[in-house]
Amino acid sequence: MKAAPRPCSIADTLALVGEKYSLLVLREVSLGVRRFDRIARNTGAPRDILTTRLKRLVEAGVLEKVQYSERPPRFEYRATAAGEELQPVLVTLMAWGDRHLNADDRPVVLEHRCGEVLSPRIVCAHCGDEADRDSLTAHVRAPGWTTAGPTTPREA
Amino acid sequence: MKAAPRPCSIADTLALVGEKYSLLVLREVSLGVRRFDRIARNTGAPRDILTTRLKRLVEAGVLEKVQYSERPPRFEYRATAAGEELQPVLVTLMAWGDRHLNADDRPVVLEHRCGEVLSPRIVCAHCGDEADRDSLTAHVRAPGWTTAGPTTPREA
DNA sequence: CGAATGGGTTTGAAAAGCCAACCCATTGGG
DNA sequence: CCCAATGGGTTGGCTTTTCAAACCCATTCG
């Protein structure tokens, strides 16, 4: 046995979209930038890397490649429903950076329908109350994996 | 000029915590797993890589290294306030994976104080209404950068 | 005494990243 | 007609990272 790491949806998600540039590609697509050339420049990704990232994101089902011209054949990339559902990840990443890295000069601002600049807050969809550290308890379902404690988690 | 990529808090945040394993380290720390050995096994990170990641996360101010024993000197890693504020990122990543990758068997479940399993929802802190794609408008403050459109964004 | 724990560092090979150059088809301008 | 630009890539060759496994050191446990 090679001592598998903790089974976890965070790890699984990052295995799909956690490589360098992948989330920046998603950002561009969700800003309406859908073409190879422009995505390459806006993200800073080398073109060959971008090719492999796009391929992976399409395979993963978060983007789809759509032909918008025959003769010459040209394609653009669009977020699927699953891809759009990654927006909360982008929003929370941006909020953290705005607060801790660019507090005095936010490069991009999200305006909410209510007219205010968005301060995202995470709430429980059931009760509507805030879901922060203190209001959450993690339950690890996988056998042999606890949250902490001195017990040996897997191997012999 | 080498055509700088779009200035963006998402990119800036990922530059700090976007490398492989970094967010998994944060996950472990926020689950209460604070020691080198156990973090290494639970994340699957090679030990040398873990060393460099931890160093970077400490420099970035999201973790702090705390000595819990002299003779022999032993250390543990704790989340700073800034580090704890990354939890929304972990929560949204996990929610996406739970929904799209592990729908029938979530490895970890977060229970909210209200007693229900957490379905995180992002709302506007001002008005309290949901903040999804359709209720948000991006305003790019940096000059020369639009959200889309055919205009050339930076270079000559 | 010998093994285990804890926190790393070292080594050498494999993989990934990166840049610049190239390719092909079509459109647009002089 | 010819030349450059646009769009969407691929290729070559070098540099950087990653990785697994081994090693190191101090202390404690049996």
From TrEMBL, chains A, B:
A Pfam family: HxlR
Biological classification of the source: Bacteria, Bacillati, Actinomycetota, Actinomycetes, Kitasatosporales
Identification of the protein by name: Winged helix-turn-helix transcriptional regulator
PANTHER family: TRANSCRIPTIONAL REGULATOR, MARR FAMILY, TRANSCRIPTIONAL REGULATORY PROTEIN
InterPro entries xref list: HTH_HxlR, WH-like_DNA-bd_sf, WH_DNA-bd_sf
Organism per entry: Streptomyces flavochromogenes
SUPFAM superfamilies: Winged helix' DNA-binding domain
Domain (HTH hxlR-type) ranges: 8-105
Keywords noted in UniProt: DNA-binding, Transcription, Transcription regulation
